[in-house]
Design a protein that fits this description.
The radius of gyration is 17 Å and the shape is globular. Helices cover 28% and strands 26% of the residues. The protein has four helices and 15 strands. It binds magnesium ion. Magnesium ion binds next to loops.
Length: 254
C-alpha cells in the first residue's frame, strides 16, 4: 500500500522541499573553481539547520561493511553519477557537477538534485543536462491521478531517448514522506508493468540519471560513489512531488 498524505502532511513536505530548493540554489551560487566539495557541504548543512530542518543524508546507512554517509549533500563530478562524498576535492572549470540534497522538516522529507556546469558548457553537455532536466519535468507532468507508475517511467524514457542519452537503470525514484525512501519505486524506463495507480496524496521523488555514453555503472571502493564504467559524463535531476486532485505539484521548489 502506498501511503496517501494529507494536505497538512504535504504542506510539511513542502517546507522540507523549500529548504532543499534553497540549498541547491545556494550550491549554484557557490560552485566556483577552487571551492572544495567539503566547503559546499558545510554551507549546505549550515543552511539546512538555520532553516530549522535536519539534513537527511548525514549518517544514512551504507552498504554492509561500509561507513554511513558522512555528508549532508552528495556531490558527484563528471563520470560520477550519484552519491559522491564531499571532501577535499576542488571544483574546477569544465566540470559537470551534480548536487543532491535532502532535508527533514518536522518529520517530513524533501529530496532534490540538480546538475550544474562550471563555466560555459559545450553543446553535448548542454544536451545531457537539458535532456535530464526535461526528462524529469516530463515524468512529473505524467504524474496525474489515474495514471500509473509506468506512465511516469515512460515519459522520462521518451525524453531521454529523444535526447540521445542513456538511462542509468539500477537507481530509481522512490516514495517519500516520513522516510526518505519509501517502498514505491519509479524506474526511469518502461518496465512493461503498469505499477500502482496514482491518486491524490501519493508523494514521490522522481530522479532521472542520464549519461552521454554507456549508462553501465559501478560503485567505487568508498562504498558510495557511483560512476559510469566507461567514464562518460552523467547528469541527475530530482524533485519531490505530490499527486493532487489538480495534478502534480512540485514540493522541492522555492
Ligand atoms: Mg532521491
Amino acid at each position: 500500500m502506498v501511503p496517501l498524505r494529507t494536505r497538512q502532511e504535504i504542506e510539511s513536505m513542502r517546507r522540507a522541499g523549500r529548504v532543499v530548493a534553497d540549498v541547491l540554489a545556494l550550491m549554484e551560487e557557490e560552485l566556483k573553481p577552487g571551492v572544495t566539495t567539503a566547503r559546499l557541504d558545510t554551507l549546505a548543512e549550515d543552511y539546512i539547520r538555520k532553516a530549522g530542518a535536519r539534513p537527511s543524508f548525514k549518517g544514512y546507512r551504507g552498504h554492509p561493511g561500509y561507513p554511513n554517509f558522512p555528508g549532508c549533500i552528495c556531490v558527484s563530478i563528471d563520470d560520477e553519477v550519484v552519491h559522491g562524498i564531499p571532501g577535499e576535492r576542488l571544483i574546477e572549470e569544465g566540470q559537470v557537477v551534480s548536487v543532491d540534497a535532502g532535508a527533514i522538516w518536522q518529520g517530513y522529507h524533501g529530496d532534490g538534485a540538480r546538475t550544474f556546469y562550471v563555466g560555459k558548457p559545450p553543446a553535448d553537455v548542454v544536451r545531457l543536462i537539458e535532456t535530464t532536466r526535461l526528462a524529469l519535468m516530463a515524468g512529473i507532468a505524467a504524474a496525474v491521478p489515474g495514471a500509473h507508475i509506468d506512465d511516469v517511467s515512460g515519459a522520462v524514457e521518451d525524453v531521454a531517448v529523444e535526447g540521445r542519452c542513456d538511462i542509468v537503470r539500477p537507481y530509481v525514484g522512490h516514495g517519500i514522506g516520513t522516510k526518505m525512501h519509501e517502498d514505491l519505486q519509479i524506474p526511469n524506463y518502461r518496465t512493461g508493468r503498469l505499477g500502482v495507480e496514482l491518486e491524490p496524496g501519493v508523494c514521490m521523488a522522481i530522479e532521472p540519471m542520464l549519461t552521454l555514453g554507456s549508462a553501465e555503472v559501478e560503485t567505487l571502493s568508498d562504498g558510495w560513489t557511483v560512476v559510469t564504467t566507461d567514464h562518460s559524463l552523467a547528469a541527475h535531476f530530482e524533485h519531490t512531488i505530490a499527486v493532487t486532485e489538480n495534478g502534480p505539484v512540485i514540493l522541492t521548489t522555492a
